[in-house]
User: Fold RimJ/RimL family protein N-acetyltransferase from Nocardioides panzhihuensis.
Amino acid sequence: MGDDGFRLRKWQASDAGVLLAAYGGAGMATERPGDVATVEDAERLIADWAEEAEADRAHTFAVVDGDDVLGQMRVTTQLRVHGIGWISYWTLEEHRGKGVGGTGLKLLAKHCFDELGLFRLETGHRVDNPGSCRVATSAGFLVEGRERQKLLYDGVRYDTETHARLATDPDPA
Assistant:
């Protein structure tokens, strides 16, 4: 899956060092699973993602340009009975603001609608994260509302803004 030079591909064991380094970047503390501290842990996580995809519980992709990993797109499919997927994403710190997230999310949405047969995709972000909001809206995800004090990080509760895109929505420009 590709667009604007960016494409999505499955994570590979050889990406483990990049994944581990990404989790150490600015703004990534809440993305890093607590049990991923070594390259071997990152390799295990990548293997777990492959198992989740095989079982259709979640599909996790690296956003790449050539061989360079720029970020990640993930959809979980726990509400498959309703055709709903929950999207999460991140971009490596040095690639933020370059269209990686928005393009990656457009590619993921197309895959979810065309290949996974999902109808509704949902995502959300802390209201103090305008970059994540720009990614969602640039990929055609409409704002649906605010969830008060939904997330808890380091003892502080944060409101989130929710977005969704339907298979019947027009493709974003």
Q: What stands out?
A: The mean pLDDT is 93.
